[in-house]
Sequence to fold (302 residues):
Amino acid sequence: MPELLPIAIDNLGKRYGRAQALAGLSLEVHEGEVFGFLGLNGAGKTTTIRLLLDLIRPTAGNARIFGHDCRAASLEVRRLVGYLPGEPPFLADMTGEQLLRLLERVGGRRVDAAWRAELVERFDLPARHLARRVRDYSTGMKRKLALVQAFQHDPPLLILDEPTESLDPVMQEAVWALVADLRARGRTVFLSSHVLSEVERVCTRVGVLREGRLVLLASIDELRELAPRTVVVRFASEAPPPPPEIAPGLKVIGSAPAAWNLEARGPLGPLLTRLAGLDVADLEVREPRLEEIVVPYYRGAP
Fold:
């Protein structure tokens, strides 16, 4: 029996008149993944999410969630998804508690009281805050309430649009700790974010959209292989002149009186062999940052 993928997108497209918001997107997200969906504003990320949830209709292609057609079986799809929109349209006159219970009923799945209690504790929403009307909430409190409603029915798939937006650093840590816990339990997370350092930390794979088209799809490990590491060799005394050719995959990009700066692709064993017998004081290896790899795809350089 074929695997029922959490997300399977086939040649999905969306036009608004003459404007192409999404073009020929094909993508699979597997169970237990934390998938980062990246791109500049207007690249098509939110359009894709809205198509998955049948909030808008495609002009081409189709998408399935756990085997259910996102358009033909949208109610079943929504029961399987916890959704955090970028700007949650909350009912301002309701209290936080009333809103959570309303969304539980609308969602069609029972919420375990102990699990909800754990969530409100993790996101620092005590009972006195939940008893207040949403119109009196700060932006950060509304975001925390939105997170609780997305996670509260413990769905197999989470779709999160900018999950740490407006949150302080302590709450950002709470979000990523929860994502890690859910992944360990086999849940799948599909998230959009502009904070690439967070994506690098929590995601297993990423896809990059540019102008409605998928321009990069790779695991975090594969992405790191696209850019070289920087190696700084520091000497205890004056550095000897660096050799023109150290080893395959190693390139000298600069030197100082007591250091070599190298670019490395591949293993560092040959470098260590060349350094044997030299007066080396320290060796620093800097992994490429995700920004260095991904941002050129945003701009269309690769």
The chain has a mean pLDDT of 90. The radius of gyration is 24 Å. Residues 123 and 144 are 6 Å apart (CA to CA). The longest strand covers residues 19-29.
